[in-house]
Amino acid sequence: MLKRFLKRFFIAIAIVVVSPLIILTWLEKFIETSTMGRQRGYFYISCRELFSIIPTLIGNYLRLGYYMAVCNKVSPDATISFGTILGHRGVTIGPGVNTGPFSIIGYATIEENVLMAARVSIISGKYQHGRPSERSRGDEMDIGGHNELITIGRNTWIGQDAVILANIGRNCTVGAGSVVYRDVPDGATVLGNPARKVNMDSRDN
Questions:
Q1: CB 167 within 8 A of CB 150
Q2: Is the peptide bond before 76 cis (omega within 30 degrees of 0)?
Q3: Distance of alpha carbon 131 from the chain centroid
Q4: Is 0.90 topped by the overall pTM?
Q5: Taking the mean position of all CA atoms in its chain, how far away is CA 56?
Q6: In what order do the strands lie in the sheet with 92-93?
Q7: What sign has the CA pseudo-torsion 33, 28, 121, 140?
């Protein structure tokens, strides 16, 4: 109980410390929405990169406080580790979620008690970036991608360097280095590139 209280106390302090950046992020989103412009979020991008490189528990609290204030829903009982970036403001992160260091999370809903090892990438669907098409010489490229909401079910474990492009059910295990491009049903264990369902009861001789 005391630990829970202290964590919320330090998160509240972190929110106060980073409040100027939170206000500017809100203002950026309001301007983009009110002007019917494309939500590029340049200031949000700068802030997420800045907070990702702050080390120790101080960085953990600052990241958590900032994302709680500007993203769709981030639980105060989550842990966002060093080097981790939440790439989309529409992300939802439930209680007990622990992201490994240097992970990248796109447009996703991560349910409670999901554990991720280092360098996990949750991409915003298989068509996030699309194909680049040049408008004209000197203009920026038009990628034309589509963000798809990816859901990671509760009590799932994701191994190091896994790349997730599809939904994962509850109580699943994703092996290290796996590339998931098809939906994974509840309770499944998947391994490999591309990831395939395996039977963990079988043993190699």
A1: yes
A2: no
A3: 23
A4: no
A5: 20
A6: 73-74, 92-93, 108-110, 150-152
A7: positive
CB-count burial class (<10 Å; 0-12, 13-18, 19+) for 93: buried
Residue pair 41/15 in contact (Cβ under 8 Å)? The answer is no
For residue 86, is pLDDT > 50?
A: yes
CATH architecture of 72-135+144-200: 3 Solenoid (2.160)
Give the domain ranges of the chain: 1-70, 72-135+144-200
How far is it, in rounded angstroms, from Cα 150 to Cα 169?
11
Separation CA 58–CA 40 (nearest Å): 28
Residue 191, token pair as written in the block: 């391994």
Structure tokens at 159: 């191994």
Token pair of 84, please? 């981790």
- At 9-50, the pLDDT tens digits run 999 999 999 999 999 999 998 888 877 666 678 999 999 999
